[in-house]
Design goal:
Elements: E1 2-7, E2 10-13, E3 18-26, E4 31-39, E5 46-52, E6 57-59, E7 67-72, E8 77-82, E9 91-99, E10 102-105, E11 109-114
Parallel strand pairs: 2-11
Antiparallel strand pairs: 1-3, 3-8, 4-5, 4-9, 5-6, 7-8, 9-10, 9-11
Amino acid sequence: QVQLVESGGGLVQAGGSLRLSCAASGSIFSINFMGWYRQPPGKQRELVALITSGGTISYADSVKGRFTISRDNAKNTVHLQMNSLKPEDTAVYYCHAQLASGRYWGQGTQVTVSL
């Protein structure tokens, strides 16, 4: 079994910054990719950013230039630096990991951006 534990969410004013972190533990042999999804109120879950074990990165168009994903393979952690936050970034953010054994999700962390 694999566990993903997120931290770093909270309340911030528009234009501010937050940093999310996610640590994977458990039966980990190799992680193909890790990343972040989010689910805004009343909407479906959507991709925010992904990073592969080789360092290939992809971002949702809505966060390009504002968010930065990074990964520490040795520690099985992934981070999401979020700058220039907007009210529309308000959502529950979920850590995600794809392993050979399957897909795993964190419990989610709330990010709220106020005007």
